[in-house]
Amino acid sequence: MTLPSITATGRLGADPELKFTQSGKAVANFRIACDKRKNENGEWKTLSTVWLSVSLWENDAEAAAEHLAKGDLVTVVGQLNVREYDRKDGTKGQSIEIDYGRVSKALPRSGGGNAQRPAQTAASNPWDTQGGAPTWGEEKPPF
Predict the structure, then answer these.
(1) With contact defined as beta carbons under 8 Å apart, do 10 and 101 qualify?
(2) Given this model, what pLDDT does residue 24 score?
(3) Which residues of 33-66 are buried (b: 16+ CB within 10 A; e: fewer)?
(4) The CATH number, out of the four listed (3.60.140.10, 3.40.50.1860, 2.40.50.140, 1.10.3430.10), of the domain defined by the range 5-105
(5) pTM above 0.70, yes or no
(6) For a surface tag, which of 76, 130, 133, 143 has the fewest beta carbons within 10 Å of its beta carbon?
(7) Residue 108 has pLDDT above 80, yes or no
């Protein structure tokens, strides 16, 4: 049975925990907080938060343990899994997990929310045809 895929963006709640199986395979586990947010009158408010557990294996696990830290904003892609477990008080609980995932660290943003881009000159912008033909030597973009 194939599990559904999921893409989630959130902040790490703690540094990734790196462990090794008995056969020597690396596994990293961490949780991300995915917030539902709304902008009201120029201020962002968190309406709710969903915590997702993430499991990465082998090279991805080792890279996550080395490069990710609590608070980092990441995007994770993987297989969605709901695991049931018994709580200490004897009740049943559920954990929403992303297994066999891939993770990427989000790029930092400026304070205004829009990424700062360097100013382009006509020489560095091949789409600028005001000063003549594009820099690749054709009259139209190559597509």
Answers:
(1) no
(2) 95
(3) eeeeeeeeeeeeeeeeeeebbbbbeeebbbebbe
(4) 2.40.50.140
(5) no
(6) 143
(7) no
